[in-house]
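Project standup — Tuesday

K.O.: blocked on the structure for the chain from last sprint. Re-posting the sequence here as requested.
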Amino acid sequence: MDIFSNFGISASGLTAQRLRMDTIANNIANIETTRTPEGGPYRRQIPLFAPRQPSETGKPGDGVRVQALLQDQSPFKRVYEPSHPDADEEGYVLMPNVELVKEMVNMIDASRAYEANVTALNTAKDMAQRALEIGRRG
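H.V.: unblocked you, prediction finished:
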């Protein structure tokens, strides 16, 4: 592994974690959306990551890519709110399957993973810079 492949690996991790944070923010923004264009309440989204394929980079294990953006198939919450326009005949409303606490924990995790990738990128950059300095002295 050459020193410059570290840049690509860290960059792919940064992109993946940014998408993860964007998805979490979208989930939180739709926590009370009971009506979507597809019909029914909003479904929580989850990004699925996979290793980059050798055809993308030439080597296996050279970063991460988004494989899919999945919809969480867990059941919707039923809330008794008879005055809601989407209430059924019994007065219950189907609410999105988004839990704020779970999303906040995932946001903290994604933020820390993003920071770890920034640290790895900066470390690789410092190593490359020092290697160039050694070459200039010699």
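K.O.: great, moving the ticket to review. Residues 17 and 112 are 9 Å apart (CA to CA). The helical segments are 5-29, 54-57, 100-137.
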